[in-house]
Amino acid sequence: MDSTTFWLPKRGNDPDEYEDAFAVDPARGRFAIADGASESSFADTWAKLLVEQYVESPVRWQQRWRDWLPSLQQRWLDKVGSRPLPWYAESKFEQGAFATFLGLLVEPVGRQRWWAVAVGDSCLFQVREDRLLASFPLAVSDDFGTQPSLLGSRTPVDIVTAERENHCNGECQPGDRFFLATDALAHWFLKQHEEKRQPWHTVLAACQQSADTFVAWIEALRDERDIRNDDVTLVIIDV
Questions:
Q1: Of 6, 26, 110, 236, which sits 20 to 30 A from 188 (CA to CA)?
Q2: Cis-peptide, bond into residue 58, ω within 30° of zero
Q3: Secondary structure letter of residue 215 according to DSSP
Q4: pLDDT above 60 for 7
Q5: Measured CA distances, 83 to 78, 92, 239 (Å)
Q6: Which of 14-18, 61-65, 75-79, 224-228 has the lowest mean pLDDT?
Q7: What is the pLDDT of residues 157-206, one digit of tens each?
């Protein structure tokens, strides 16, 4: 199993202002992306902690959130709690950091199945033999909105499990491709598919040359207003 990751901050932002996050371990079939909510405090740190926790975890996603989320929330607080803040940032800090999250486990051997968990609108697309086989957690471009579900550094575990998390699973075959994308690119992908196009061809053409061609392609989409000016993260996985 192979994977390639591409990312780009919002236009006008420096790379250190990128608030998405990703982590991959192809040998163990673990992949995760997150999109930190810019309006919250230290969202980039929270997004990074989430993806790293998922990919490094020794168990499948069926592990209950309550077994690891509180300790991860404490790690976020330990990392950022000692930083001096101006008075106007203190209330946001008290509310915590927020991010969407998508984790994927693909069994590298054996039954060749996959499992995914998501909070919010970072999406997974499975493509086989030139057709879209699965779209999770959103399947229609109109389902994207301005207030997706978010996983917070202070969100009670019961709220996550009862109201926010989504799960999905399926089978996969050699030759399948998975595309993991944060919301701006995921929305474009679904809209293209609804217009009877095959967006995976466009994505692969932009990504198979170099990171520079990916950047040029995203900037062209922004110029044409085909994609929102937002952080973009894309992970391509070849089974």
A1: 26
A2: no
A3: H
A4: yes
A5: 10, 14, 43
A6: 61-65
A7: 888 776 778 899 999 999 999 999 999 999 999 999 999 999 999 999 99
Q: How far apart are CA 46 and CA 112, in angstroms?
A: 31
Give the C-alpha distances (Å, rounded to integers) separating 34 from 54, 99, 108, 113, 172: 11, 6, 23, 22, 23
Q: From CA 220, how far away is CA 214, in angstroms rounded?
A: 10
Q: Where are the domains of the chain?
A: 2-238
Helix H segments across the chain?
43-56, 69-80, 87-95, 157-159, 183-194, 199-207, 211-223
In SS3 terms, 60-122 reads as CCCCCHHHCHHHHHHHHHHHHCCCCCCHHHHHHHHHCCEEEEEEEEECCCCCCEEEEEEECCC
**Structural contact between residues 38 and 32, judged by C-beta atoms closer than 8 angstroms:** no
Distance CA(56)–CA(51), nearest Å, equals: 9
Assigned fold of 2-238: Phosphatase 2c; domain 1 (3.60.40)
Q: Check residue 10 and report its DSSP letter.
A: P
Dist CA 164 CA 150 (whole Å)? 7
132 closest CA partner among 167, 166, 181, 99: 181
Which tokens hold the place of 181? Answer: 């994308």
Token code pair at residue 57: 């975890």
Which tokens go with 160? Answer: 């996550």
The pTM for the full model equals 0.92
